[in-house]
Amino acid sequence: MFRYLRLAVRNVLRSRARSALTISAIAFGVWMTLVLGAFIAGMQNAMIDDTVKGRVGAIQIHRKGYDDVLGDQPLDLDLPQDAPWLDKVRKTPGVVAVAPRISFTGILTNGSQSANYVGVGVDPKLDQLALPLFAQSVKGHIVGDDPEQSAAIVVGDEMGVALHAEPGATLTLQAATASGQQNAMDAVVVGARSAGTPFDNKRLVFVPLAWAQELLNMEGRVSGFVVAVDDREKVRAIAEQLQRELGPELKVEPWQDLASQVADVVRVQRIILGGIGAVFLIIAIIGVANTMLMSVLERTREIGTMMALGVRRRTITLLFLLEGMTLALFGGGVGIGLAVLLAKVVGAAGGVSGSPPGTVAKYAIIPDLPLWLIAPTVALTLLGTLAAAGWPAWRASRLRPVEALRAT
Amino acid sequence: MALLQLRGIEKSYELGKTVVTALRGVDLEVEAGEFTVVMGPSGSGKTTLLNIIGCLDRPTGGSYVLDGEAIGDRDFNDLADIRNRKIGFIFQNFNLIPVLSVRENIEFPCVIRGEGGAELNQRVEAIARDVGLTDFLHHKPDELSGGQRQRVAIARALVTGPQLVLADEPTANLDSKTSDQIIDLMLALNRDKGVTFLFSTHDPRVMEHARRVVSIHDGVIVDGTAAAAADVARMHGAGTSFLLPYDAAERR
User: Is A306 part of the contact surface with chain B (CB cutoff 8 Å)?
Assistant: First the structure.
């Protein structure tokens, strides 16, 4: 086999200009697919990081049924802040932080204007562990930065503009308590948050957990917990494990279910990438087929000579398939090398700034070349090239020796 | 038993709606160790005959036995194995593989049947010595003269130790001096190593050395001596007398 491979490589090198063009076509196809994929992967990383580490968390735990009425922020489906099963969650392998949250709705006003809001009460210290990127989306301070200020709140930046709520301004937040009574408390704006989605920017208000519990008359109670994990790829597995351990009265949900629109975007982008990559690869593969066909036509007498010397049909096929494979390996290698180089250079420069679809925030997009991108690209290039070389190779093997030897 | 036996070999081609008959009931026997020339005018069927003897083409009728094996309806791979084991080929255009060195070209028929190692190297070097190529083993074919290339082809034809070497106009693309050298080389191999050669040629110089001449006209073998002498005379020009140095028919 090694001798045939060596012969294939020499035949590829024999028509240097043509092989160089074919290798360039394959390299270009692979490079374009990988570069496009690397930027999409980078963007998806930014989106998922923003979702997992800045907005939703990797996993959330609520009471069963809470997610059915999630938009209503129901206070009656609450949990104790110091639930006994929390220790089990914290000790689960892969879990790095657990932060309590309470969600509620109401109306806030600056005295002359008012707006509906969705409030999120957070434990400042634990929330920073569970959502370490949250602070990056906030201009000014986050809740809990100033321990003296127990009524500090962060508002969505568009809400802040609408209500002229600059840092230092006081807003009054009104909400219904767990027992249905109306309550209102003043709070001081310390920061404005520019998040990934327009809803967050127009509606969300972050407040200290203890302050929210006082407003809602729910001391020691929370809506649920945000769980952070050490490996994004293990989120679903950890969620499933927690669900098994915590039982059916609690609902454990990974970010893919909580922010399904992000998961949908990721999936659609991968499908589009697959389509675009397929077009590039098909163009490259047509080039390979053309090269191999030319090669068979030019070397017909040589094929006849080999047959006369006793080479079997399958060996003739193998020789041309190996030539196709050699072209694919050279082209694929060059394409992968150049794509890795570009990804490293752009990554070292801090990436490029961009907004994924459906979001308003700017992310630093660091090109990424994960295995899910490289493996299918390489596999499809090799398989495609083999398919492209297959027909010319088969054609060569079906030649009749006496006719092949007559070729000029 | 003869090395090869052809009985009633026929070969017809379809060219569009026309059927062309190239061979019409050819009977031929060749003994091991012979140095035989097949001659005849263009279109007489001699190349077709060599192609059938070399298992490169199939007859449309008749029977063919090579070294005791009936060739008959063998499939492609069987025929490939027979060519590899029993037959060496020397072509008019040398037909070397250009990306392989002289050594690799010579050893190629052995490599495809899985041989390799020191024993093969020794065999290749011995044959290269026999054909005068010891100093050119690492050269590529395009670095050799026509005569040297044909020597490589001869070495390649011999490396498997075949029962029969078929040479289709082996001196047609060589100058007269190189032709003489190549003919001398093949005669020496025939004389010293007992290699059986079967030629097709137009070259009268080959005829001078042939020990048996088979003359073919319109797809039929005509009686040896007289027809062959006429062919040779025609090739040498009108009025030239020419005597075959050896008549295999008499020898038999």
Answer: yes
- DSSP annotation of A35 reads H
The pLDDT of residue A250 = 92
- Going B61 to B62 to B63 to B64, the CA torsion angle's sign is negative
Instruction: Please report the ipTM that was assigned to this predicted complex.
Output: 0.86
Whole-angstrom Cα distance, residue B75 to residue B54? 14
Cβ of A315 within 8 Å of Cβ of B112? The answer is yes
Are residues A320 and A392 in contact, defined by beta-carbon separation less than 8 angstroms? yes
Direct distance between the N- and C-terminal alpha carbons of chain A, in angstroms, rounded to an integer: 29
- Domains of chain A by residue range: 2-51+263-406, 57-257
Does the beta-carbon distance from A401 to B56 stay under 8 Å?
A: yes
Reported as a single tens digit per residue, the pLDDT across A163-185 is 888 888 899 999 998 888 899 99
Residues near A323 by beta carbon (within 8 Å), at least 6 away in sequence: A8, A11, A12, A292, A295, A389
**Average model confidence (pLDDT) across chain A:** 87
**Inter-helix orientation angle B102-111/B146-158, to 10°:** 20
pLDDT higher than threshold 90 for residue A276: no
pTM (predicted TM-score): 0.72
> Whole-angstrom Cα distance, residue A29 to residue A45?
24
Tokens describing residue B61 = 């009728």
